[in-house]
């Protein structure tokens, strides 16, 4: 019996990146990107962090090797602390001695208080006897002076206590300083990353700030490339981008534009441009979302070459190429149907999950409609899950599509967010036509749509978005789904409208 495996067929499409067929459009004979897009060559990079010693000393241990993957807080190296341990013992003894001195000073205060009480008592008796002329005026003055001297002695004793207490504080501060030096002798990973270089070995003596390791920080993974002055001003911070690396030309990695250089520079020698070398270029950086990096930390490799794609805005600030995106959906539909047909016919493949994001949702719905019209029910029956995230589909068009597709088993899943700004722009471009991905699960019409077509609609508005567009909340599901219980997944068996609570990783019916 052939071994059955599961396959995840992801059609994650966002505004122009519509699968392999669309990449064929991009790679037109002219070699230029389509209108409304720009691309540049670069490498996947990450920040380099030098892990250094704060104090001079001998390296006692290095706990990692080059290439090791480390998490934030992992112990990387330990410096020798024998001398510091001796200093700590001396400081602890100093604290104990200072505390003993405080006890002695407090005993002196008690003694001075007793002497003052005695002196005041003798002065009182002397004043009484002086009034009766039993003692001389001279003896009375002596008693008064003795009382004043004793009171001054008490004040001095109390000041001595405060001085001794401050000495304790000073000794304690010295102890804490030594403890801080001992703590600094253990070097921890400041963030998740991979060890690039071991710059020293155990037994070597380093000075202040001596470098022990170089860490490739995976908290900020990005690609930098250059665009000419005709395109760079049309790139906006926070816009979505895609990275295609040379080793995986069939996969597009989501990214966000995180930096656009405010000043042009001459083209670096290592930069390749589509046309002849431009004299002045602008540096652009696109960053891979940290959530995605964290979910695939072991797979992240820096230094890999590839191409970054970005969408350009029009002169009026609007996103261009919208019509081209819709045309690309139609172009890609036949290719997706073909892929599904071939995949479903392979007996070695188990469940098939079909996922579409944004206009990719329209592509998935159109492909399913075409399969149903073509009588290929057997292909649709092989689908284990169909998920449309933030589908950029007109509501009336979707009703007509579902009328043909019919209810699926298990039900089709829609991930929606009423505050999706990208779909709000899409509605404006489409003449204020409502989009499925922005529907409110509390709307009775949505309840009717879900019940009539056997669909489960899940509001993911409580999920964190990767940018201000709120168009990519589905990416945060990678953190929530591992915490979900069997009860949560059991809810997905039935059609209906739900709200996802990210903290508890539970689904709540919108009717509750």
Q: Could you characterize the architecture of this molecule?
A:
Helix content is 38%, strand content 26%. It contains twelve helices and 20 strands. It has a seven-stranded mixed β-sheet with strand order 1-15-16-17-18-19-20. The chain has a six-stranded antiparallel beta barrel with strand order 2-9-13-11-10-14. Helix 2 (82-131) packs antiparallel against helix 3 (137-184), helix 5 packs across helix 6 (359-373) and helix 6 (359-373) packs parallel to helix 8.
What are the low-pLDDT stretches, counting only 5+ consecutive residues below 50?
A: 1-31
Terminal Cα span: 47 Å
Strand order of the largest sheet: 1-15-16-17-18-19-20
Shape: elongated
**Assembly state:** single chain
Helical content class: 25-40%
Mean pLDDT: 82
- Helical region count? 12
Number of strands: 20
Secondary-structure content class = alpha+beta
Main sheet?
A: 7 strands, mixed
Give Rg in angstroms.
Answer: 37 Å
Measured by DSSP, the beta-strand proportion falls in: 25-35%
């Amino acid at each position: 019996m052939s071994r059955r495996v599961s396959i995840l067929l992801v059609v994650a499409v966002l505004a122009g990146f519509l699968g392999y067929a669309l990449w064929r459009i991009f790679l037109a004979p002219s070699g230029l990107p389509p209108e409304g897009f720009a691309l540049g060559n670069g490498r996947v990079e990450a920040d380099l962090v030098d892990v250094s010693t704060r104090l001079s000393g001998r390296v006692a241990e290095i706990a990692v090797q080059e290439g090791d993957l480390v998490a934030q807080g992992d112990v990387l190296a330990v410096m020798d602390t024998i001398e510091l341990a001796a200093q700590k013992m001396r400081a602890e003894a100093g604290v104990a001695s200072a505390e003993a001195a405080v006890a002695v000073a407090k005993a002196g205060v008690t003694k001075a208080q007793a002497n003052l009480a005695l002196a005041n008592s003798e002065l009182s008796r002397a004043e009484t006897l002086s009034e009766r002329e039993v003692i001389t005026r001279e003896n009375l003055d002596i008693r008064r002076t003795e009382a004043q001297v004793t009171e001054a002695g008490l004040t001095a004793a109390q000041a001595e206590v405060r001085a001794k207490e401050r000495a304790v504080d000073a000794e304690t501060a010295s102890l804490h300083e030594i403890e801080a030096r001992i703590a600094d002798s253990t070097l921890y990973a400041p963030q998740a990353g991979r060890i690039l270089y071991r710059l020293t070995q155990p037994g070597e003596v380093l000075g202040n700030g001596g470098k022990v390791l170089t860490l490739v920080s995976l908290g900020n993974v990005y690609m930098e490339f250059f665009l000419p002055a005709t395109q760079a001003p049309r790139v906006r911070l926070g816009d979505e981008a895609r990275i295609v690396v040379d080793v995986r030309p069939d996969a597009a990695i989501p990214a966000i534009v995180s930096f656009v250089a405010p000043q042009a520079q001459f083209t670096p020698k290592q930069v390749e441009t589509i046309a002849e070398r431009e004299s002045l270029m602008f540096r652009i950086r696109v960053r891979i979302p940290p959530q995605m990096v964290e979910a695939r930390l072991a797979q992240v490799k820096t230094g890999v070459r590839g191409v970054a794609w970005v969408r350009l805005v029009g002169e009026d600030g609007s996103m261009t190429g919208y019509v081209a995106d819709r045309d690309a959906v139609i172009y890609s539909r036949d290719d997706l149907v073909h892929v599904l047909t071939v995949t479903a016919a392979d007996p070695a493949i188990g469940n098939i999950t079909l996922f579409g994001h944004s206009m990719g949702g329209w592509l998935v719905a159109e492909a399913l409609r075409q399969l149903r019209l073509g009588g290929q029910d057997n292909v649709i029956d092989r689908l284990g899950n169909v998920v449309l995230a933030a589908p950029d589909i007109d509501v009336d068009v979707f009703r007509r599509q579902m009328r043909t597709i019919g209810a699926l088993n298990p039900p089709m899943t829609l991930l929606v967010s009423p505050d999706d700004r990208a779909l709000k722009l899409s509605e404006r471009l489409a003449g204020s036509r409502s989009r499925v991905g922005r529907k409110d699960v509390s709307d009775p019409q949505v309840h009717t749509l879900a019940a009539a077509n056997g669909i489960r609609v899940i509001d993911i508005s409580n999920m964190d978005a990767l940018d201000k567009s709120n168009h990519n909340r589905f990416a945060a599901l990678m953190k929530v789904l591992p915490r979900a219980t069997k009860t949560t997944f059991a809810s997905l068996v039935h059609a209906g409208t739900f709200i996802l609570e990210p903290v508890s990783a539970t689904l709540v019916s919108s009717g509750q």
